[in-house]
From TrEMBL:
Phylogenetic classification of the source organism: Bacteria, Pseudomonadati, Bacteroidota, Bacteroidia, Bacteroidales
Domain of life of the source: Bacteria
Name under which the protein is recorded: Redox-sensing transcriptional repressor Rex
GO biological process, one term: negative regulation of DNA-templated transcription
Pfam family membership, one: CoA_binding
Family per similarity comment: Belongs to the transcriptional regulatory Rex family.
Entries under Gene3D superfamilies matching the protein: NAD(P)-binding Rossmann-like Domain, Winged helix-like DNA-binding domain superfamily/Winged helix DNA-binding domain
The entry's keywords: Cytoplasm, DNA-binding, NAD, Repressor, Transcription, Transcription regulation
Residues involved in NAD(+) binding: 97-102
Coiled coil (residue ranges): none
GO molecular function, one term: DNA-binding transcription factor activity
Source species of the chain: Caecibacteroides pullorum
């Protein structure tokens, strides 16, 4: 590996850290609501049951330094975390497939709080094309390339039937989409420069069922 690449790799924040940081953020926000002005990693640790040293290590990736004994200033920590996680500037996205899941995502106002704004959606169903859902316009999939010229978008949300997941992904990438949030169970293939995030609501169900059974046996 070249030293430039090695350098880049060392700047890369580990995925587990990126998954934990939003938890810290939510918790620090709660502590703020309770009137706290300063928060230490030990305090966060008690709330969410993660080792304080792990929290301090995760926060070392973020540009903030705590003060000995008092900890981090709550308002600053919230602002820095939101900025670091990309929640402060809205990332615009297109959504493909306005079915039961796609429609629910168009209705979810929570996405905006996490920095994602779905500005338009695409479908082929004539009863959907030309309508709006929660104020978001639905266009025909064939109009995607033209809409790429009109909107400043580089993220695609994929909620189409599994059979066409790859086809629509290719179509999105050819049209200029740089990151795909894939909700389909299909392991889509993309060029190396394209970011893919696979998400499943069902992924943790088996774990929950297993733990539930385990507790019932005890
Ligand atoms: N990740 C998760 O947790 C999760 C949860 C539910 C569903 N899913 C997956 O999400 C996908 C959608 O599920 P659903 O239940 O909403 O299905 P659905 O059948 O309700 O919706 C699919 C939509 O895609 C549209 N579509 C078909 N061809 C299209 C095209 N060429 N371009 C754009 N849109 C097109 C259909 O008209 C329909 O509106 C499936 O792949 C499903 O497996 C994932």
């Amino acid at each position: 590996m070249s030293s430039l690449l090695q350098n880049r790799e060392s700047l890369r924040v580990p995925e587990p850290t990126l998954r934990r940081l939003p938890w810290y953020l939510s918790n620090v926000k709660l502590l703020k609501q309770k009137g706290e002005r300063f928060v230490s990693s030990t305090q966060i640790s008690k709330e969410i049951n993660i080792d304080a040293s792990q929290i301090a290590k995760d926060l070392s990736y973020v540009n903030i330094s705590g003060r000995t004994r008092v900890g981090y200033e709550v308002d600053t920590l919230i602002a820095v975390l939101e900025d670091f996680l990309g929640f402060t500037n809205l990332h615009k996205a297109f959504l493909f497939g306005v079915g039961s899941l796609g429609g629910a995502l168009l209705h979810d106002s929570g996405l905006r709080h996490f920095g994602l704004e779905i500005v338009a959606a695409f479908d082929v169903n004539p009863s959907l094309v030309g309508t709006k859902l929660n104020g978001i316009p639905i266009f025909h999939t064939d109009d995607f390339r033209q809409k790429m010229q009109e909107y400043d978008v580089n993220i695609g949300v994929l909620t189409v039937p599994i059979e066409i997941a790859q086809q629509i992904t290719d179509y999105m990438v050819e049209g200029g989409i740089k990151a795909v949030w894939n909700f389909t169970p299909f392991r889509i293939r993309v060029p190396e420069s394209i970011v893919v995030q696979n998400t499943s609501l069902y992924a943790h169900l088996a774990v929950m069922f297993n733990r539930l059974n385990f507790n019932e046996i005890k």
